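I am writing to request your help with a piece of structural work I have in hand. A protein sequence and the structure tokens that stand for its backbone fold form the material at issue. Please examine both parts with care and let me know of anything in them that strikes you as inconsistent. The record follows directly beneath this note.
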Amino acid sequence: MASFILARNIPIITQNPSIYPEDVPGVELQGKVAGIIGLGNIGSNVARLVTSIGMKCIYWSPRSRNPKYEYVELETLLKNADFIYLTFYESEKTRNFIDKHKLSLLKPTSYLISGLGSQPHLEGDSVDWEYAIKMVQTGKLAGLALEVGEKERISVEENIFITPGNSGWCTKEAIIKGSRAWIDNIVGIIKGNPPNVILKGEKQK
């Protein structure tokens, strides 16, 4: 989990052999505030995981509500959360959603973690990643986790964790499930049944 990696400053330690863990002490997750932006399937699973390790969970979502967790306004979440998880569904409507202004609301001791999938058909990002990276570089943000794409701007001294774009689905089990879904769709089409697809622009539930 990216939270543990950032909280322990693992990107800095692993890329700098001369640095000892006690030189860059981390923080504990228990008792910290987790702020989840988007409480769909991914966000709900993140909420379940963070509360299981003793974190307080707050969230903002345009539609979803869950009485198990505390709903707050987006600005309140950004100002108060120690770990911010971005798990909303990317679309044209979310372009520049987390801009410089919203990023500037984060505490310098907070961590920003992206759970956004790659959307190559979109023009522009949902988050101003370049500014977020500069915040880490200038001490205005404690850590950042994101997918590949901005690595060329990052030096080894920073607490930035980069994951490959296929890290969320590239498991043996996921490949088998995906293959079975393809087969089921082909058989369904042959039998005259509509395939199991998500139409363009349709939100995942």
Q: What stands out?
A: Residues 102 and 135 are 12 Å apart (CA to CA). The beta strands are 33-37, 56-60, 70-71, 83-86, 111-114, 143-147, 160-163.
